[in-house]
Model the fold of this input.
Amino acid sequence: MDLLIARIVDGFNNGVVYGFLALALVCVYRGTGHLNLAQGEMAMFSAFIAYALHAVGFPVVLAILGAVAIGFIAGGVVERVLIRPLGHGADYSILLVTIGLFLVLNAGAGVIWGGDPLTFPAAVPSAPDDYISFFGTRLRYQQLLILAVLLVVMTALYLLFKYTRLGLAMRVTAGNPDSARLLGMRVNQINSLGWALAAAVGALVGGLISPSTTLTTGMMFNFLIYAAAAATLGGFDSPGGAVLAGIVLGVLENLIGSYISWVGSDLKQAVALVILLGVLMVRPTGLFGTKKVERV
Done:
């Protein structure tokens, strides 16, 4: 029983990270209706920026917040320079541009900081005895911090999208930018805000998980795969659904990989794919996604 609980907790911790990064994908989609395949690399690059700020003397918390601020600005710049000239309806072109951005950021981080793994300190005590016992397993303070920040960010985004005029404007511009323009909405500025928010959330993810892993150019790739699956499974227009789906995926893939011998660690990613396909066959918009209704 203790081993089962430990594996559930480990899967839960992984799922929190999946859900956190899925929130960034939701921010872009809710604001623009597009999928940003470079979201993980933007988070990775922001983590390296936090490392650079800490290296020149910034405290850990300020280094992470500084990276979040830089990420917010960079996200808006990316939308203005790379995405906006393509037009709102250029879905495939935008997808290709995000793939190119993925490659540029990955290579750029390697050129600037090298290929050797780097370490980034935690914002909370992280000594071997800094943990809370939970049914025979250990919850590190860093893991609890990530969970707490995730809940705060998820709640803030839910309130933004659900109860504010800005959130409503982001939903309208993503669904029908032409009608939004006729209503006097500043579509371009709202699109930039969606990308900026996503980049800021991604930067926060990168800075918080860096102490638990190591800083490398490939640190976010697997997380992005699970985050995209979580956002699709939970619904790209549902922040809470994306987080919940990320946690469910994290727990299930860890349990299945641990208890089904032929799956193991090599086929754990296939678990997320099978679950995703099974749900989408029944509900294409995801578990908590909103069905689109078109007037004919």
Observations:
- The mean pLDDT is 85.
